[in-house]
Amino acid sequence: MNGFSATLKRAMSGSEPRDDRSMLIVANRIDGLGGRLLAMANAKSLADRLGYRFGFTWNSRDITDEDSHTVDVVGKIFSGDFIEKHWLGDRIKPADFGVLGGSVFAPSDLEAVARSGKLRGWICDDFGVLDIFRDEGVRPNPSEALRAFGFAPAVRQALDAAGKCRFPGPMAALHLRSGDIVYGQYRKRLVFADKVIPSTLAKAVVAELSSKGLTTLLVGQDRATVDYVSAQTGALRTDDFGAAAFEGEEALSAFFEMALMARCQQIHAGNSIYAVVASVMGEVPCLGISALFDKQRAAELIMEELQAHQADYHPLEAAFGYQWAFLSLEGEIAPAQARALLGKAGALDPENDVYDLKMAASHFHEGNYPAGEAILKSLMIGQSRRRSKIPLQMMGALAGQVGGGLTMARDLEVFFAAARAGHPYAMACAAYILLEVLEDGKSAVEMAARLVKVEPENPIFRRVRRRILLGKKPKSGRLAKARWRLGRLRFWV
User: Which residue of 118, 149, 202, 293 has the fewest C-beta atoms within 10 A of its own C-beta?
Assistant: First the structure.
């Protein structure tokens, strides 16, 4: 046990009196490197401003998510002194802490809680927490806090290397995130698409920045795409500044790239926390695509690029371009235009059910229930041949919630309308939505019963009804899952 943790244990056990200043502001995120660093910068700046102690959790074993990122152990990221002073271990007990974020708070509010002695402090994981802090003095400075972190020697070397690079002139960074949103599971959920500036828009961005006298620094996860855009536009890559020295070391490469971006005059990115950390590090603006083009023009540029050069891009990069254009214009273009974009994306990414579901929804929005029903029927029958168990894969996209977002949020009512009109495959979808999204078990059971009456011999519909009768499956908790399994046993007995 390190000295800081031992002090906390003694304070919690009552062996020494608690001083208000011993209260903690804690960063406790479990996502990727960027998210953790931003939360830590916010938490430490707030703790410094208020005179409280800062603490953070971090894994002591490598964590690897094959779709997105690797998070190195705490000792590879931070110095021994910083760990000794601030690290709280792999995890904390959340019940011992309040939570900052979601509502406005002031120093006096925290002081009152500190005096009560009922909590160890506050968890500060909300990225927007400083925006809702009702400041009564000097505003917390996350940039200063981040730069003051005690990093491990190898990380410090990567940061210093970026600081020594010679730029040819004024530069702007373009962050071409891809990873799990373009190539992985989240491309099938849509809800994180705004984190990415499509690579199919990059040429236009570079040209626009050049017209403003700025050379573009390309930072991206897919080397082939970055090399292609660089060759086509003359934009510089992180490799041109020595990034290859950190190849094979994901965390060191990330710090080098963030430090390079931090030296640019501006950063252009989607809603990527990785780019925001660079923005905080250098106190430079992080701008969305709207700073250069409105969404109508951006979508037009993507479609023009794909019409001329689609074969130059990986199929999933091209598909994401169409997806991004569709999401930018959804609700503002005619359903036929929307279906054209969806069809092109689906042809490039045929394993992605969301395009078929959105296509069906587009027909439903027009009141063309038979056309939408035909798409659902084809999808459900095809997937049932490969997997008989309910939920089918397409139901995950239909009702799955990710990061607080719902893929089909704009379309639930039209699925219900098609179900009310008596279309059975829409009814199967509606029953599952009622159960999993709206948590209306009674209505879901009634819809499933109607479904089986329409086609009593349909095996898919019978399986849907059986699944609905089992109720909503708990997402977490050993006891909750055990109870659900017991309920299944009773049902089958």
Answer: 118
289 burial class (0-12, 13-18, 19+ CB within 10 angstroms)? buried
Cα–Cα distance between 33 and 65 in angstroms, integer?
Answer: 12
416: which 2 tokens?
């219900």
Chunk the chain into consecutive blocks of 10 residues (it has 493) and report each block's average pLDDT, rounded to whole numbers: 38 40 91 94 96 95 63 95 97 95 91 90 96 86 96 97 97 95 93 95 98 97 95 98 93 96 98 95 97 97 98 98 97 94 98 96 97 98 92 91 88 97 97 95 97 96 95 64 44 36
Strands 171-176 and 266-268: parallel
CATH architecture of 169-331: 3-Layer(aba) Sandwich (3.40)
Rounded-to-integer distance, Cα 196 and Cα 36, Å: 19
Fold of 3-151: Rossmann fold (3.40.50)
Cα–Cα distance, 322 to 201 (Å, whole number)? 11
How many whole angstroms separate alpha carbon 73 and alpha carbon 60?
Answer: 5
DSSP per residue over 206-257, as a string? Answer: HHHHHHTT-EEEEEES-HHHHHHHHHHH--EEGGGGTGGGGTT-HHHHHHHH
* b/e 120-144 (16+ beta carbons within 10 angstroms → b): bbbbbbbeebbeebeeeeeebbbbe
